[in-house]
Amino acid sequence: MTARTAARMREIEKGFLVGLGRAAGGSIVFALPVLMTMEMWSLGASMDRPRLALLLVAIVPLLVGLSHYIGFEETETWVDDLRDAFVAIAVGFVTSAIVLSLFGLIGPHLSFDEVLGAIVIQTVPASFGAVIAQGQLGQSDEADDSRNKQAGYGGSLLFVASGAVFLSFNIAPTEEIDFISASMTPWHAIALVLVSIAMMHAIVYSVGFEGQSATRPDDYSFWSVFVRNSLPGYAIALLVSAAMLWIFGRLDDLGASAALRLVIVLGFPAAMGAAFARLIVGGQS
């Protein structure tokens, strides 16, 4: 091995370790809201195991896409992105286990199944934080900017789905959404749908947040952007909300009307998460 090759290997190893450090930091920051939420502590132990496994499997494609566009290290192939997605899950799992142990929430007093469930459910937001640590916490460079610009329409929808998943995941297990949905009339639900769509469109295209110049091409009219981006984005937010509520068992034994109101209520924060995530893309759509 030549000196140049050895130096290159050390540089790659150092870069990977730095990336892991960023991933660990990002995973803790993004997971803290659920790491310190009481509902999540018991939910991991009691949640239906097939649904929990399905949730973990379902986030893998999102993590792969996020790795491709704003992952914690530059990648060249989708195989690299898949590897980084599993690295993010592993980092999220380890950091969640460490924090839960430090809080005294897992230990010998719990069964292995309860401990594993508690860690796995926290791994979901932690893995999102790990995979986007470079894009949001690391130093940006020309390679990062180039990847973001190549996101395009498909990339923007990926970010919309990721933002909706992350925010709805944090809120779906809480009892407050049950109280809100029970207090709403059909007119409240309709108004919330309209407000959600309007705010989602305004956040991405109208009110001057950083990144808006890249999300709305000059040659697209208001209605074109609204129909092509805002409406599909809200539809994705609703689908994600329904999926999260089902995974957490919140739709079990509910009638169609009550379930729809619950989805609309959760769809509001999901749409906000989707809108702000859309700004991260900065891709032409």
UniProtKB/TrEMBL annotation:
TM region(s), chain numbering: 20-40, 52-70, 85-106, 115-133, 153-172, 184-205, 225-248, 260-281
Query: Which Pfam families does the record match to this protein?
Result: DUF2391
User: Does the record bear Membrane in its keywords?
Assistant: yes
What InterPro entries does its record include?
CHP02587_IM, DUF2391
Give the protein name, as stated in the record: TIGR02587 family membrane protein
Q: Does the keyword Protein biosynthesis apply?
A: no
Keyword vocabulary terms for this entry? Membrane, Transmembrane, Transmembrane helix
